[in-house]
Design brief:
Layout lengths: L8 H11 L4 E3 L7 E3 H27 L7 H20 L5 H19 L5 H13 L12 H33 L9 H42 L7 H44 L3
Antiparallel strand pairs: 1-2
Helix pairs in contact: 1-7, 2-4, 3-4, 4-8, 6-7, 6-8, 7-8
Length: 282
């Protein structure tokens, strides 16, 4: 398909749509009840990988007790210290769940994002699709809005839970109906503002992560299509464009490492900020 892209413009669109189509399973005739099995499988695999990683760290820490810490322990300690410092600097109320949640989100998002550094033709097409016979498979779970929205909804529900728990029914009601205009006459307006504010938080969390990772994967696909559409490098001119494609892919991949880390950090920081605001009394 990619070899025909230079002669048939429709094949370029087909190539891109193929790589951006999920392996899905639909319940009945309603398209709403559709499971993206590749996103579920890959996010679950990344979650299991985080658990294995932490178990290996715990095992290594027990073995080196009283001695010099290993590189793995130093890395985990650095990440834990970073997140703990951000939580202490942001929150004025003690809640041990926040740091643990922030660490889990940070590690999960990093691992799910990092899959985007692998060329899609190598992992999705060559390994999974040809190895298992699947027609479609997307390996980057964060390019699926269902995964990012689901993660953001967990944060949203925790924010509502702690807002109600810390402030009580009266405090929650006052924050909803008496802010920002401190008068009962403006209660309907304040309520509308509150609903918009609360809904904007999970949407911004989800769509920011999804948009950045989706765009990054699309650029990686376009770079891969750039030289593949010209065929195999049997001539000097085609070989030159293959070299340009490899150089561009390496350059974008190096820059994309920053995006992978930055998006995980932003998601983690906003989670901490939103939970901190849930503990504050206005």
């Amino acid at each position: 398909m990619s070899a025909e892209a230079a002669h048939n413009p429709e094949s370029v669109g087909e190539y891109i749509r193929h790589h951006l189509t999920n392996w899905s399973w639909q319940f009945g005739d309603n398209a709403f009840w559709t499971l993206h099995l590749d996103s579920i499988l890959w996010s679950a695999l990344m979650g299991a990988l985080v658990i294995v990683f932490l178990l290996l760290t715990l095992r290594s820490a027990r073995r080196s007790a009283g001695g010099l810490p290993t590189g793995l322990i130093k890395y985990v300690e650095g990440v834990v210290d970073l997140i703990d410092g951000q939580v202490r600097a942001t929150m004025h109320h003690y809640n041990p769940l926040v740091a643990q949640l922030a660490f889990t989100i940070f590690m999960m998002v990093i691992l799910m994002n990092a899959v985007d550094l692998i060329p899609p033709d190598l992992l999705a097409t060559a390994v999974v699709e040809r190895g298992t016979g699947l027609e479609h498979f997307k390996a980057v779970a964060t390019t699926d809005p269902n995964i990012t929205i689901g993660t953001a909804l967990v944060v949203f529900l925790l924010v509502q839970y702690y807002s109600f728990k810390v402030k009580g029914l009266g405090g929650y009601a006052k924050e909803t109906f008496l802010h920002p205009f401190n008068h009962w006459a403006f209660a309907p307006v304040n309520f509308i503002f509150k609903v918009i504010e609360e809904l904007a938080r999970p949407l911004s969390l989800a769509l920011r992560l999804f948009g950045n990772m989706y765009a990054g994967e699309l650029i990686m696909i376009l770079i891969g299509l750039f030289a593949l559409s010209m065929g195999w490098p049997k001539s000097g001119g085609v070989a030159f464009w293959w070299f340009v494609q490899i150089f561009a892919g390496a350059l974008w991949g190096s820059f994309h490492i920053l995006i992978v880390l930055l998006q995980a950090f932003i998601f983690m920081m906003l989670t901490i900020v939103y939970l901190s605001m849930a503990h504050e009394h206005h």
